Description:
Largest sheet: 5 strands, antiparallel
CATH topology of the domain at 40-109: SH3 type barrels
Number of strands: 5
Strand order of the largest sheet: 4-3-2-1-5
Radius of gyration: 23 Å
Protein name: YolD-like protein
Strand content: 25-35%
Number of helices: 2
Order of helices and strands: HHEEEEE
Amino acid sequence: xxxxxxxxxxxxxxxxxxxxxxxxxxxxxxxxxxxxxxxxxxxxxxxxxxxxxxxxxxxxxxxxxxxxxxxxxxxxxxxxxxxxxxxxxxxxxxxxxxxxxxxxxxxxxxxxxxxxxx
Length: 118
């Protein structure tokens, strides 16, 4: 006589995708952080660094806040849209990005602009 549990045997296997999805959502929620508050001086420093990067075609590292996490990207600023306060950015690989001024967390020049004083 074959003793099989039938549908009960497969019930746990059918629950696994939902469990995995729930665990992933719980982990993402646990790792979510509050958006950092920046003062006016930091924002002005970001703007200065971005303007210098445009003028001298400098490589930047930009940290931005999105969906409760801070992401980083390296590349070049192509354009500043002053009406919508957004920056158009291109990575070293050529991938386009667009950042809102409100999403910026940190802006650092990875290259120095060298000036020669005579």
